[in-house]
Design brief:
Length: 229
């Protein structure tokens, strides 16, 4: 079994489950049907299911077969899981929980970044801001630059737990940016706050940085709330 076949099967099966094709509590098709549908061997299907078990998406039992678990039990810090969920459009409660996570983590990370950022990291944040400013006419480029900017800020916190969460946090942040940036003129309103945040870290000003960070998050919360009305 090649790694490419395994990865492709995991991706297709995970996306299929995340789409709601099989609801929590329901069981997947029997192995033979999955093999036929995905065009792979039983070994590939079994290994793919093992991967999804590790991601908290399914459980395997001797009498119940392979059963889909509630989304709350899935590993939402796995970028692949988040990507699968995002393909179908995330429910409001998921995005609002994400904003709560940002409120809990980002302001403190910004405070630490103001205190701990190296000159190279300050330069990376400033470069990410310039890329952001240069991407105003392209939403996709702006969202990519926005993710890089916030990841650079989080990395500058020099907290090893936050650093290990960066891949997942980056994927989650991208979702928040995608929703909020769809609103007309929103990019122009948030760009000055990004500049404030970059300048605060460069000048070692935690109060200014936390204010800019919280302003960005609350601006996103307002925009996202309006999006789901």
């Amino acid at each position: 079994m090649s790694n490419n076949v395994h990865a492709a099967t995991v991706d297709r099966l995970g996306a299929w489950i995340a789409s709601g094709a099989v609801l929590p509590g329901q069981t997947l098709k029997v192995e033979a049907q999955l093999c036929e549908e995905f065009g792979v061997s039983r070994t590939v299907v079994r290994e793919a299911i093992k991967t999804l078990v590790a991601k908290g998406m399914v459980e395997v039992g001797p009498k119940v077969g392979t059963r889909v678990l509630p989304v709350r039990g899935w590993n939402l810090f796995d970028p692949q899981v988040v990507g699968w969920l995002a393909e179908e459009g995330l429910p409001e409660n998921f995005v609002m929980d994400l904003l709560d996570l940002r409120r809990a983590i980002e302001p403190m990370a910004v405070r630490w970044a103001c205190e701990r950022a190296t000159p190279a990291q300050i330069l990376a944040i400033e470069q990410a801001y310039r890329q952001l400013a240069a991407s105003m006419d392209d939403k996709d480029s702006y969202n990519h630059a926005d993710q890089q900017f916030h990841e650079a800020v989080l990395a500058a916190s020099h907290n090893q737990f936050i650093e290990q969460m960066l891949p997942a946090l980056g994927a989650l942040l991208a979702i928040s940016f995608e929703v909020s940036s769809a609103v007309p003129d929103e990019l122009g309103k948030t760009l000055p706050l990004h500049e404030e945040l970059a300048k605060a870290i460069a000048s070692r000003d935690p109060a200014r940085g936390v204010w800019a960070c919280m302003s960005l998050i609350e601006r996103a919360a307002t925009t996202i709330s309006e999006h789901y009305r």
